[in-house]
Write a structure and sequence with these properties.
Helix content is 73%, strand content 3%. By secondary structure, the protein is mainly α. A hairpin with a 2-residue loop joins strand 1 and strand 2 (142-145). Helix 2 runs parallel beside helix 4. The chain starts with a helix and ends in an 8-residue tail after the last helix.
């Protein structure tokens, strides 16, 4: 077999795994809000871009590395998530409004966030330059760009940490139960609204962290969030709604599929992969790999 093909093949697999790990960080919040809380937060990608711009401002004015900026992003986005959920709850969920109205709320929120970024930061691409963003390690024929390796490592820590938190703590089990039977949860003395508000805030935190990682990988601009709507929902549906491990597996599958498509068919075909996998999953296994 041609050595050049083998090199391309190995690099596509490694790049796909690194990209998939990052995609998991972008999608795990949707797995929580949509899969566990039944809240179709279509504005999630807009919060990702908001996280990128927040990280850019922290990097520019405070001189903090994007990884260190996460420690500022986390509490700010947690508070933001609490505010958004309370507005959503009192406007729609409390009155039993149909889900379509809630979807319209988040769709409008997506454009509000985008327009706010445009008015305050402009439409130019923003990026950060650190000591590792232009560094590539070599492992035999395989390239390991640190701009992908660092986000991959942080993503894995966050996703696996969330998985542990949701499966091993009392609050995590309450989150898993709240969408299934909130009345039973109330009978146990647990406030389901408070549980959902904190869980939704955690999902927004993951978007903020994902945004901090995104600006390490590439330049960002306000409307970029729309490009990730299909991707994050495709990953969650592919892996199985509400399954963090499913989200991780779905992200790896999509990451590898995209890099192979970009390597052997051309980069212009890569964006179609997420929508193609989403349609195939809905057609042949609607419950996803791990089910719900």
């Amino acid at each position: 077999m041609d050595s050049q093909f083998i090199t391309l093949f190995l690099n596509a697999i490694v790049a796909g795994l690194l990209l998939g790990g990052f995609y998991a960080a972008l999608s795990v919040g949707i797995s929580i809000s949509f899969g566990m809380l039944d809240i179709v937060n279509i504005a999630h990608p807009a919060f990702i871009i908001l996280g990128s711009y927040a990280t850019f401002l922290i990097f520019t004015y405070l001189g903090l590395d994007p990884i260190l900026a996460v420690f500022i992003v986390v509490p700010v986005f947690f508070a933001l998530g609490l505010v958004v959920y309370n507005v959503y709850y009192h406007s729609f969920e409390k009155h039993g409004s149909e889900p379509l109205r809630g979807l319209a709320f988040f769709f409008g929120l997506l454009f509000i966030i985008e327009v706010t970024i445009v008015l305050t930061a402009g439409v130019d691409y923003r990026t950060v330059a650190t000591s590792y963003t232009d560094t590539t390690l070599k492992l035999g024929p395989v390239d390991l760009p640190l701009r992908l390796v660092v986000p991959f490592a942080i993503s894995m820590l966050m996703v696996l940490g969330i998985r542990w938190f949701l499966s091993k703590t009392y609050f995590g089990r309450a989150v898993s139960a709240v969408a299934q039977d909130s009345m039973a949860l109330q009978l146990m003395g647990v406030n389901p609204v408070k549980v959902k508000s904190y869980a939704f805030a955690i999902s927004i935190v993951t978007a903020g962290v994902g945004g901090a990682l995104l600006i390490i990988i590439q330049s960002v601009q306000p409307s970029m969030g729309r490009d990730y709507i299909g991707l994050v929902f495709a990953i969650c549906v592919l892996g199985g709604l509400g399954s963090v491990y499913g989200t991780l597996v779905g992200a790896f599958i999509l990451g590898i599929a995209e890099t192979f498509t970009a390597t052997f068919a051309g980069p212009s075909w890569a964006p179609a992969v997420s929508f193609g996998l989403l349609l195939l999953t809905l057609a042949f296994r609607p419950s996803g790999i791990f089910g719900r």
